[in-house]
Design brief:
Blueprint (H helix, E strand, L loop, with lengths): L6 E4 L2 H10 L5 E9 L7 E9 L2 E5 L9 H9 L3 E4 L3 H11 L6 E3 H6 L9 H9 L19 H12 L1 H14 L3 H18 L16 H21 L3 H4 L2 H10 L4 H5 L7 H4 L2 H13 L18 H17 L4 H4 L2 H11 L15 H16 L2 E5 L8 E5 H4 L2
Parallel strand pairs: 1-4, 2-5, 5-6
Antiparallel strand pairs: 2-3, 3-4, 7-8
Length: 402
């Protein structure tokens, strides 16, 4: 079967320079990428798909070892809007090559979550739901590093960008109709901030669990995390192939620096780790010698265990609120977000912490106000139809008595 979309394959620097010149002033660029992530320190970029008003383009960084920096510089600096679907990795690639994000970004997955109950929705589902187009089967598990790419791979790659702008048009119209464009802009800003954090030096905190950590334990985690990053970068392998997260946390908990004790931790007796045990020991020793004031501080706990039941109840309510407003619960908030809101509302949260997500912006208007009415007794919930997916309805207390 031939591809229904005409496209151009770019494999050398002359073609790429011409593409950049041709598309320097376009209004929009839709992008997607194919990569291999599991075996490398950073995902190996295998193919860039780009759609513009001038057509569809496949930019191949592996053929001729093409330097794709000019592409990402255009994406980051151009006046266009960049359209992606679940585009975290596309933005990470942009950051890696330019240390910048695009000036304007439209993510179709986030937009769909603000006008429907599904999040995260796959690209094919969004195309089918909003454009009534059924895309062909996936090639997402293909070996995108292998060359030459097959005709089926090329067709799949083009399909991934062919409908981005049409989806953007439909989704934006619906956001406008519902008065949620400002919500979307706020959401995109928060999303970009979260990606920026994932690329920041503080990203070592992501591996921490919910337990309390003292300053020296946190310093051990940070030190071992940095050691692991450096070794994985040298080897160009996944960080977890060097040292698992749970082993870093276990060593931090034990605070024992001698090589024998470290080796006795289950999982640390791997042959490939043995030669690195002295380095690991030194990381722990240096962390323990550090003064308390020079160690990282624990992030404050915003809620307590006693809020678990109330938080669980309100999280169930959140799903019904979202259903009523055509919002996706997965985009609106998590159980932790609900408990954070309760702690803030009851004034037991750390006053130095920023407002919880559900107390800010459109979330406060849609979710926070209903939560406040329930906790103050102005509203109550009841089961309307037990057979419905969302059986809860909200009733004003003054109207509930007959």
């Amino acid at each position: 079967m031939t591809c229904p979309h005409q496209y151009q394959i770019i494999t050398d620097s002359i073609q790429l320079a011409a593409w950049c010149e041709q598309n320097a002033e376009v209004d929009w660029i839709g992008i997607d990428t194919e990569f291999i992530a599991e075996r490398y320190y950073q995902p190996l970029l295998c193919l860039i798909q780009a759609a513009t008003p001038n057509g569809y383009f496949l930019i191949d960084p592996l053929t001729n070892s093409l330097d794709v920096t000019p592409f990402w510089e255009l994406v980051a600096n151009g006046p266009h809007e960049t359209i992606v679907h679940a585009g975290r990795l596309e933005l990470e690639f942009c950051w890696r090559y330019t240390n910048l994000f695009p000036k304007k970004v439209f993510d179709t997955q986030i937009a769909a979550g603000l006008i429907s109950n599904e999040y995260p929705a796959g690209y094919g589902n969004i195309v089918a739901h909003f454009l009534n187009i059924n895309m062909p089967g996936t090639e997402s598990r293909s070996n995108w590093k292998s060359r030459p790419l097959t005709e089926r791979q090329l067709e799949y790659a083009v399909d991934d960008i062919a409908y981005l702008n049409n989806c953007r048009t439909v989704l934006y119209e619906k956001l406008e109709k519902l008065g949620r464009v400002s919500w979307f802009r706020d959401e995109m800003e928060e999303w970009l901030s979260s990606i920026r954090y994932l690329l920041s030096p503080e990203r070592w905190r992501r591996i921490l669990n919910g337990s309390r950590w003292d300053p020296h334990e946190l310093e051990i985690v940070r030190s071992l995390w940095n050691w692991r990053e450096n070794l994985a970068r040298q080897r160009n392998c996944s960080v977890r192939h060097v040292l698992r997260d749970d082993l870093i946390l276990e060593m931090a908990r034990r605070k024992i620096a001698d090589v024998r004790s470290i080796r006795n931790i289950r999982g640390m007796d791997r042959e490939d780790l043995r030669k690195h045990l002295p380095e690991i020991s030194e990381c722990i020793s240096e962390s323990l010698r550090l003064a308390d004031q020079d160690c990282p501080r624990a992030e404050s706990c915003r809620h307590t265990a006693k809020l678990t039941i109330l938080g669980s109840l309100l999280y169930s309510v959140l799903g019904s609120i979202c259903h009523q407003h055509d919002l996706a619960p997965g985009l609106v908030g998590t159980p932790t977000d609900v408990r954070d809101w309760v702690a803030w509302h009851l004034k037991i949260a750390n006053p130095n912490e920023p407002f919880p997500a559900l107390a800010n912006g459109w979330r406060a208007e849609i979710i926070g106000k209903t939560f406040e009415a329930l906790l103050s007794g102005k509203q109550m919930i009841r089961i309307a139809n037990p057979m419905e997916a969302f059986p809860i309805e909200f009733v004003s207390v003054k109207n509930s008595k007959k």
